[in-house]
Records
---
Amino acid sequence: MKTINMRRSIRKYSSREVGDPLLKTLLRDSERTQTMGNLQLYSVVITRDAGKKAELAPAHFHQPMVGEAPVVLTFCADFRRTSLWAENRKATPGYGNILSFLNAATDTLLYCQTFCNLAEEEGLGLCFLGTTVYMPKEIIRVLRLPKLVFPVATITLGWPDELPELSDRLPLEAIVHEETYEDYTPDRIDRFYQPKEALPENKHFVEINRKETLAQVFTDIRYTRKDNEAMSEGLLEALRQQGFL
Ligand SMILES: Cc1cc2nc3c(=O)[nH]c(=O)nc-3n(C[C@H](O)[C@H](O)[C@H](O)COP(=O)(O)O)c2cc1C
């Protein structure tokens, strides 16, 4: 079976080190990914030091992988290097705006995902931490990110010490639209989401959270409007601070 069909997030790692030569090879090979204007609008900060991981942990809601993984990688949208290059070459950069942030964030996520694919091909295990954009100001402080550099993704990386069950996915027809967008009728929603709702682990999830539906677990507990709005404020402040707004 192809590696991609067996991939799952890995949150427990063995004590085996991830050697620097392997890490650098993977980071170098990932540079082959597509990038806007061939500018490579990203940087990555490698964290191996236990003290630094402990400093990063609060920004990731103390998820244990941050302290336990041998390597934590923070992938940053970076228009700084390109801007400094321009300024040093009699060119005037104009990248302190939201479009430039989106372009740099796109480059960064593509680079990050290429790294993930290559790392998993090597047998490494990893977990993507979306918390990176929840409290970016903390990460910016700890990693000393200057203006026009913004953390968009974190990966905890190590050799797997677990083999979790594969998680479910929606059927292809739920995500693919032929020629134009076909909106979702209640019938189609039922068809696409009922298998997920029927999974024992999801039923259990609903039960222990004392909710009526699985969707309520997401809207009322895991990703609430209140949290999303509060963290959006923090995100906007951080974008202003870093010069993208
Ligand atoms: C944007 C994004 C944010 C995520 N954030 C977290 C996180 O903060 N903590 C975590 O344990 N997993 C996180 N994950 C991993 C997902 O939980 C995981 O990919 C999903 O449940 C599917 O499981 P699988 O990767 O094992 O197939 C994140 C994944 C993505 C793409």
---
Amino acid sequence: MLKLLCPRQYVAKLADIDLNDLRQKGICALLLDLDNTLVPRDEDRCPEEVVRWLEGARERGFKLCIVSNNTSARVLSLASSLSIPAVPRAIKPFKRPFLQAMGLLGVGPAETAVIGDQLFTDVLGGNRLGLYTILVVPLQGRDFWATSLVTRPLERLVLCFLSQRPDKGADLT
Ligand SMILES: [Mg+2]
């Protein structure tokens, strides 16, 4: 179970993700979480830095899709402002939304990375399908109440445990 919660990489921000390295690993598609990964949860605009990063990824030939547990209206309006396809109301960590997103992009698991700020939705869901998972530190913004009350303390516990394991993934920093 713990292995399924272990991201392949843990980065402070999107800009710290080495896209060339991902290409070398054969990855050409990025499934992106929305809230607190691309947009602070209590805002409805993407920070300029994130917009630039998305454009850079697209210029390098990455296919992008947003996979979000949030409501359709918020997800679709943000996704269309970024010109990125989206799977809203995803119910991550279920496998189905990730499979749906890969279907939209026409890619397989070996070519796909999941990028998100939550272990129990983004990382767990991606790992269940054998996708390359990247955990990012949440953008500033308030979490959904259940996330801050229940999920974040559990995440801290798991991350603390993982960081002490001698056999942690080589990429995990
Ligand atoms: Mg999130």
---
Amino acid sequence: MFTEKRPRCTRCGARTGLARVSPVQSIELRIYECPSCGQTDCYEVSPVPDRDWILLTGERLARIIAALKNKDGAP
Ligand SMILES: [Zn+2]
């Protein structure tokens, strides 16, 4: 069973809303958008239930976004 959770915005601390879930490169990527400030936070959700989600930043985020775009752009 999976418990839904809504992490707080990393910029302003407001509750974010789930924008989309995208499995990419064998990980589950969750993208949350903040309704207050427009910040977008991407989390890598571990398949192991006890592990915390990983907030994606910097180079790792850029790599995954690029992979996502490649997948979306594919015919
Ligand atoms: Zn915010």
